[in-house]
Structures are given as C-alpha cells and as structure tokens.
C-alpha cells in the first residue's frame, strides 16, 4: 500500500525533481553552445574570458553569462585535462553558483564540477575560494584544475600551513584559491591581528565552494579554531583565592559526586562575598553578581573544585613540585597533561606548587561563523540530504540531490544483526575470505582506530593480507585508496579516512603509470602509459566480473550520513558493487539506543545461536535510533552556536573597527572623540548632574585629570569662580586636553603623531579584546552559577556579555586617552635600550614561531607600548614598526640631539639631520 505522500510525489514530483528540471533549459543552452566553443582556438577561449569580464563590468549579470561561461569552461577542461563534463556535472555547477549544496555521489567528478561556478564567479575579479578537507587535496586539486583555469586565462593559487608570506599573499590574490578550512580560518584570525593593511593576506570573502561540506560544516563545526598564547601572571589571584576556600563552612556548597560537580549555596555566596571583600579581591560595593566579577567568580569556582573534587594521590600526585594528573582508569601518570580553564593552576595553588602560566585564547572563530562571512557559499559532498535541515537553518544552504551520471548498480544488503560482537567478527572474517577468494576487493569500514586495529589482528590471524587506513597521512592514504579497488585487495578504513580520493575498480591507472615511470625512468613514458592502460583494462574487467567493490561495514555510526558515505564508496559511475552492514547487540549504538526493543523484536523473530537476523524492520528501527542521535547532536551544535554568536557579533564589530583604523590615514578624530568622552565621564563622576558647587569634588577631579588626561588644570580655582557650572568646567578641561595633545603633535611632527595614535589604538584594542575573550570564556563557565534563580543561561550570557563589552569599550577609551597623554619623545638612552629589547623580543618570537604547533601559531607582536612603561610615561619610539637603519624614511622624526638612527654614533644634527 502506498502512503498519501508517495502517491502525491508520483504525480507532482518531489521538490528536488523540480529543481533538477528547472536547470534543464540552462544545460540545454550550454550543450547547444558547445560546437561554437569547440571551434575556438586556444587563444579564443582566453579572449572569451576577457569579453565576459568586460560585459560583467558593463553591468551584465552572472546569471546571464552563465551558459556561455560554462560552455567555455567545459571546452577549456576538455582541452586541458581531457575530461568533457557530463550534463549532471554542469547541473551540479549551476546549483553551486546558486548558493546550494550539490549532493553528488563519490566518483561523480566534483573536483571538476567546482571549476564551473569558480570560473564564472571569478570573472568579477573578486576571488573565489575552494575549500578542501586536507592540504594534500588542496594541492592535488589546485594543480589538476589550474590547467583548466590556465586554459581560460585565469590564475590559480594554493594556500598551505607555514607558507612563506609573500607566496601566500600571491595565492590569495589569484583568481581562484584552493585551501583547507583550517588554513583559511587561521589566516582570517591572523589577518585581524596585523597592524598594517599591507600585511593582511585575505581579500574580501566573496564566494567559497566547500568540498566535503558535511565534514567541514557539521563534523568539525564543534571545534573552534583558536590561536593561543601565554597569558599574564595571575599567581597572586590563585593564591589569594586558595586561602579563602578552607575558611568556608560545610553548608557553603553542595557536592554531586556522580557528576563531579560542586556549587556554592546561597549561604556560601554570602560568606564568600564577605571574605572576598575583606581580602580586597572583590572591590567594596561590587557583588558576585556583577558582570565585572566574572573572572573572580570563575576562579573561585575552580578553587572550590580543586579543593573538593580533586584529591592528592587519587586524582593527581605532586612530583618535583609539579601537579601530575592520574588516569582514573589505568592509574597511570599523565605527564604534561593539564586541566584547562585555570583548574590546574588552582590545584597548584592548593598544593603550594609553583603556578604555571595558563595558555589563553588570543583569537578564536568557529567554522560556522567563518564561512558565514562569505557573500555566497556553495558546498559539495556525497552525503548531505540527512543534514539538510541543519544546512538550511544555520547557513541558509539548500541541498539538491543531483542525479548520478549513470544509474547506480550497487546492491545494498539489509543489515545483519548478531547477538555478540564475537559472533559478528567471526562472520565478518568469513565473509571477507569468501570475497577475497573470488578476487572481489573489500573495503571494511570501522568506527574507530582501535576497532580498525582489532580487526586488523583478526585478519592477520586468518592469514588475510590487508591495508589499514586511518586518516593521518593523507598522501600515503591516497596511495592506499588507489590500491583499494585492485583484484583481491582488502582495506580497513575508519570514518573519515580517504575522503576526497575515489576508489577505482582495478586500481587507479594514473597512480600505476606514475609508479611505473618512477621505477623505470629511462623508458619512454608514452610507451609505459600505453602498456599500463591496456593491462589496466583487463584488471578492471576482472574486478567487475568479481562483483566490483564490496563495502563491508562493521558497525553503524551514530549518524546515517557517515554510513551513507561508506556505502557510497562502492558503485561509482554505474560500476557493480555491494554494501553490507554487520552489527551486534553489543555495538555502542545498539546499547545506547533501543537495544531493549531490538532484543524483544529479535526474540520475536526467533534468533538462534551464532545466526544473524536479517530483516527490514531492523534497518528501520536502527535508522530511527540514528535520527534521534542526529537530532540531539544538532541541538548541541545549535546551542553552542548560539553562545558563539554572541562572541561573533562582538568580534565582527572589533575586527571592522580595527580594519577601519588601519585603513584610515588619520585617526585623530577617533582619539579625540574618545578623549572627550573620558572628560565627560570624569566631570559626571566628580561633578554629578544637578548638584551644587559645595557638593562638587573638584580636588578629585583635579587629580583624575592629571592621571587620566595628563592635564594639570586649576580645577579647584574654576570651581570657586562665580557662575561656573559643570558644563563650563567640562569645556575648559576639553580645551586643555586638546591643547596638550596638539602640543605633542607639534613636538613629534604630525606624521609621527598620526602613526603613534594608530599604534596606540590598535594595540589597546588588541589587548582589551584578548582580555575580553578570556572574560567571556569565564562567563560561559559561570552562567550556570547564577542560574539557580531559574534564569536561562543563554539569555544570562547574552546580557552579561553585552555589559562586559560595553565596559571593555569604556576602558578602551580610558586607556587610549591615558596612553596618548603620556607619550613623549624618548631620550637617547631609552632609545638604545629599546632597540636592544626589541631585538631580543624579535629573536624570542622567531624561536617561538619555529617551535610553534602548526595548528596554533602564536603571532602576537611585541607591544611597543609595553616597553619602558614603568617611569609613569609611555615612551614610544617614533616608528618602531618597520624601522630600518639604512632607510631614513623609516626613522620618523628623531630629535636633533638623539643619536643618528643610521648607527654612525654621531648626533642626528651632525649626521643625517644636518641642516645644510
Ligand atoms: P568526487 O570528488 O566526486 O568523488 P573526483 O572529482 O575525485 O570525484 O573524480 C573522480 C574521477 O572521475 C576522477 O578520476 C576524474 O578524472 C573522473 N572524472 C571526473 N569528471 C569526468 C568526466 N566528465 N569524464 C570522465 N571522467 C571524469
Ligand atoms: Mg572529491
């Protein structure tokens, strides 16, 4: 019996069918243009590109040019790499251009598909990014497809980790740039830590095509990209808090052993607040509930956990003055492993050990938020349909299932369910043996590396030769994948392994040729090619006769998508193939979900020892269980994203401000506004609105003006004058501070002053933003702490994060104003000391950079404002950045009595500064 939905779909078609149908006319148009483009010579194709560019510049839309551009691209690819794109590939390309995910099965040729929308969109001159899951693929695809782009007169770049700066900049400047998601994200973060526009790598974020989009935007979406570095020393805070914890009574907290959770009670909070006030850790008048208290609250919580949840010689030991964690299962020491978020430091404080500095986040972004920067996004993968809702909700990406070029001939078996894992593995080994004897290649899928290893042992015991793939060495991996379709090959793979390289029956002919040429460099490569190709045709036929690739999965994954990925490795381009899932009631997924129901069902179906149950019911019920887990995981990702969105909004504001400042010639207006706001705040604080003169604190204002504005103004005298009100005092203070800055500008010279202002602004923004990031991290861990008044943690987090952001901006204004009020030209001695220090810092940075992990490169530039800050004055070297002693243009305006920057040892006025 057919359901109503099924009947309706038969009549009306699915929404997907309609989308496919809608592109048909476009594909027909491209096909009709083919003879015309075939007639063009090589220069003619490039001339077409020029023509399209011009038409776009003259206002023609990309959609209008699409048929011709695709026809040109098809012809270019045919000539350059010998592949004539199938109609379904054109369709896939159209959907990408329209900002969708094109779901196309493995082996359908997605690498080529991406060139079509990339070519079309790059005609705007804005730069297109093609995103791959690993560096090997970025390089492979860039090299392969650059021939196509080259034939069309476009440039291709590839970006990779640790790439020399100028090379990377060139790669980003290319029309089309291939890169991994990681490198793109890190470059974005690094760019926003730069202090000069010219040092930035990325251009605008216009259009990105993300390959294996589900891996990148779903699987990896939970881990943010982080650039971290050592933080400032907080030892004193840890020690002070550590002393407080033992003074708390037993009713100050509640402990939940099972979830390893400990929280303060209401009584505890009161007692705590009192203690914190008494020790001066919390300023008088500030409560634990104020946003400003976030950091203290966080550390107090960590202190409590350190004392109540972590026991010496059980959870950790102290060895040579270090706190070393113990693995709770094996009892082994985990040397070098540290608890995060200041917990390790809290334990160090408790044990009286030296407190090691914590590593803090300098910059951070999630993939979701990075990829949302693009004006337009497209994605490709073999498996997206099951996550269509998530793609739409989070990225606004629709999923279109593009039909395969040839009908799928793969046979998908019903699941086989065994009672125990042992029985299952026995059956698997048996099944592999049978296939292997026929010569049928087998790809065995596992859900973890450990299980791969277990299976590998079983196969070895059974005398079956095999390869193991586990997504570590991408290049080697490509080789193993290339061999996985050979006659009688057995390959074990975990989830992600080998994505991006497809398995060809009889092996990968290009790899075979490459190897043969390498093995015999003297011989004629063309002859080798001919020989191998002939042999390969036979190999391929033999494997097809043996039934094609057999995918044998040893478990179902939490997500149907990953299962489909594995299945889809077989049966590419209409090849024969087979897929089978072997399961047992002891599998993780079965245990967690519905195993009871399954158990009942299985006994109903009558399950005997050693036998497997095979029934469509089982598949259905498993798929329901998977859908449930998928839904839960989606919820977790959504929740995380909502938290991250808060930070993301703020990051966008800060990064945009930074950029604006870098772009500006002159930021004096910004610093002036800041200064005036500081004046307003000071006046409001000491001369509150609607008060009489005898209530004014003019002495306080006088002192504050010296401290914050660097202005020594006769505020007390002004206060005594007849008819003077707050407004007049405000104006006079403003004038005095403006004059003071104008004097400095005159002393430094306007050009230098502008540089200084820019530097101070950027550096202060960076410092404040980093502190703020840390506070936000703390806030996230403490929102629960304030949660027992039945408030929603997310809302709580949003409100407080906003307040914290505001107070960060306020403190930014103050610091910038204060620093600018203290700058002064530096003396000779200071200058010498400073260059020395700078040289040391640079050497240290170089060392750090060399030792840095590729994933998290610490790139903080030494803050020039930190140097010589002691003596109450911030001594800023005129133009330290980019200083070059051989180039007087980089010297700024040295004072006439300073040593000449050229290093001659003479005074400036007697050397380069001589007025002739
Ligand atoms: P996918 O990424 O979709 O799995 P690939 O881009 O890796 O597929 O391509 C798989 C294979 O198909 C490659 O060896 C490629 O040369 C081949 N291929 C792609 N497009 C065509 C085409 N139009 N005609 C013939 N072979 C093609
Ligand atoms: Mg691919």
Automatic annotation (TrEMBL):
Q: Which UniProt keywords apply?
A: ATP-binding, Cell inner membrane, Cell membrane, Cytoplasm, Membrane, Metal-binding, Nucleotide-binding, Protein transport, Translocase, Translocation, Transport, Zinc
Give the membrane topology, semicolon-separated if more than one.
Answer: Peripheral membrane protein
Please tell me whether the keyword tRNA processing is annotated for this protein.
no
| Cited Pfam families | P-loop_SecA, SEC-C, SecA_DEAD, SecA_PP_bind, SecA_SW
Known catalytic reactions: ATP + H2O + cellular proteinSide 1 = ADP + phosphate + cellular proteinSide 2
Q: What is a single molecular function from GO for this protein?
A: metal ion binding
Annotated region Disordered: the residues are: 845-866, 885-905
Q: Which cofactor does it need?
A: Zn(2+)
Q: What class of enzyme is it?
A: translocase
The protein's assembly and partners: Monomer and homodimer. Part of the essential Sec protein translocation apparatus which comprises SecA, SecYEG and auxiliary proteins SecDF-YajC and YidC.
Q: Which PANTHER family match?
A: CHLOROPLAST PROTEIN-TRANSPORTING ATPASE, SECA INNER MEMBRANE COMPONENT OF SEC PROTEIN SECRETION SYSTEM
Q: What is this protein called?
A: Protein translocase subunit SecA
